[in-house]
Amino acid sequence: MHRRDFVKGALGAGLASSVPLELVLPISQAAQAAARQRVPYGAAIRTDFLETDPHYAEAVRKYCQIVVGEGGLKWIDLRPSRSSFEFDQPDRLIAFADANGMTMRGHTLIWYAAMPDWTVEIDTAKEAEFELIHHIEVVVGRYRGRIPNWDVVNEPISEDPDKEGPLRDSIWLQQLGEDYIELAFRTAAATDQNTQLVLNDFDFEKATPVSRKRRSLMLDLLKKLKDRDVPVHALGLQGHLTGEAEIDKDGLSRFVEDAHGLGLDILVTELDVIDNNLPANQGVRDQIAAMRVNDYLSAICDVVEPKSILTWGLSDKYTWVPIWFSRRDGLPNRPLPLDENYQPKAMMQVLQEFTQAGS
Ligand code: G3I
Questions:
Q1: Taking the domains of the chain in order of start, what are their residue ranges?
Q2: What are the CB-based long-range contacts (under 8 Å, 24+) for 86-89?
Q3: Residue nearest to atom 21 of ligand 1 (CA)
C-alpha cells in the first residue's frame, strides 16, 4: 500500500479519533530538513512577528525551506506614494531566509487587490504601461539573482466568470486590456532572466460549475500565452481549500496534467483549509482539514510532482482566514499545519508525506 493511501485510510477511519501525532517526523533545523526533502516545503510569513515572537521564528526554522511574505511585496506595502518604494519588510525577510539557508519566493508583482489609494490616479493606458513596467523593473531588479520565483500575475481569472466575464477587473485590465499579462511577464523576464515566472490563482479544485469554468479559462489563457512565446514558466495553485467541499480529484488531476503538458512547472503556493463551516469539535475539524489537504495533494501529485508546496501561514496563531471567514460560534479558525502553540496537527503529517524523501 502506498503511504499516502495509508494516511488517507488512517484519517478517514475515524474522524473523531485523534491522529497519532508521534507519526509526525521530528525535524531539526532548515539545513538538516532540506536534506530530507523531496519537495521543498514553505509558508507565508508575517515578518514583524518573526522578529517579535521567538517561538514563531523557531517553528519557521524547524519546518520551512522556503518563505514568502504574506505581505511586504504587495503594492500597498511597497508603494506608499507614486514616487517611492519601501523595501524594509521584504529586505528583512530575505535576510532571515539567507541567514537560515532558506529561499524567499516573490509575491506578488501584479494583482488587482492590495493597491494603495494613489493608484486610482493611473487613468490612461500610457500611464498604466509606464507604472507596470517601472514597478516590475525596480522590484525584480532589486532582488535579481536572489528570488528564485515570482508570482508575476496573481489571480487574473474572475471569481465567477459567468457573471463577471473571464478576467478579473483591475486597473491593469481596464487600461491595458488582457495584454497587461503578457507585458508583465515579458518585463519580469527581461529584468531577471534566471527567475521562474509564475501565474498564480485559486479555486481550481472544486466540483462546481464555477471551479470547472475557472480551470478551463486558466488553460485557455496559458495556451494563448504559450502560443505567443510569453515567458510564463509555472502555474501556481494557491489551494485555499473550502473545508466542507469535496476535492474534485479527477477534474484537478486533468487540469494539472494539461497545464504541465503546456511545458509548465506546477507549484502549490498558498495551501490552507477555510474551516468556518466545519464542525466545532477540534479533533474532527483538524482531521477533515487534513483529509482535504491529502485529497488535494494526491490529485496533483498523482500526475505531476510540484516543485514546491507552501502553506499560507504556518501556525493557526497567524492566519488571514478570520478576516473573511470567522466562525459563527466564535471559535478560532484552524486552517494551518501547526496549532496556535506551534504543535503539529494531522495536516503537518500529510504535508510531510508529500514532501519528505522516502515517503
Ligand atoms: O497589520 C494591520 C494591523 O496593524 C491593523 O490593525 C489591521 C486592521 O485591519 O490590519 C492589519 O493588516 C491587515 C493584514 O492583512 C495583516 O496581515 C490588512 O488589513 C489586511 O488587508 C491584510 O490582508 C491580507 C490580504 O492578502 C490582502 O493583502 C492577508 O493578510 C493575506 O493573507 C492575503 O493574502 C492573499 C494572497 O496575497 C493572495 N491569495 C489570497 C490570500 C488570502 O486572501
A1: 13-355
A2: 87/142, 89/47, 89/48
A3: 114
Cell of 53: 515572537
Cα(320) to centroid(ligand 1), Å? 6
pLDDT (0 to 100) of residue 157? 98
> Within 6 Å (CB) of ligand 1, which residues are found?
46, 70-71, 74, 113-114, 154, 238, 270, 320, 323
Mutate to test the pocket of ligand 1, among 323, 324, 325 (most ligand atoms within 8 A of CB): 323
pLDDT in tens, 265-278: 999 999 999 999 99
Helix (DSSP H) and strand (DSSP E) numbers for the chain: 15, 9
Q: What does the pLDDT look like over 192-243, one tens digit per residue?
A: 999 999 999 999 999 999 999 999 999 999 999 999 999 999 999 999 999 9
Q: How far is the CA of 63 from the centre of ligand 1 (A)?
A: 23
Helix, strand, or coil (residue 60): helix
Distance 321 CA to ligand 1 centre (A): 10
Nearest-atom index, ligand 1, CA of 319: 32
- 309-311 and 196-201 as β-strands: parallel, antiparallel, unpaired? unpaired
Q: Rounded distance, CA 10 to CA 24, Å?
A: 13
- Contact between 115 and 171 (Cβ < 8 Å): yes
Q: Class of 13-355 per CATH?
A: alpha beta
**Three-state DSSP class for residue 336:** coil
What does the alpha-carbon distance between residue 273 and residue 325 come to, in Å, rounded to a whole number?
A: 11
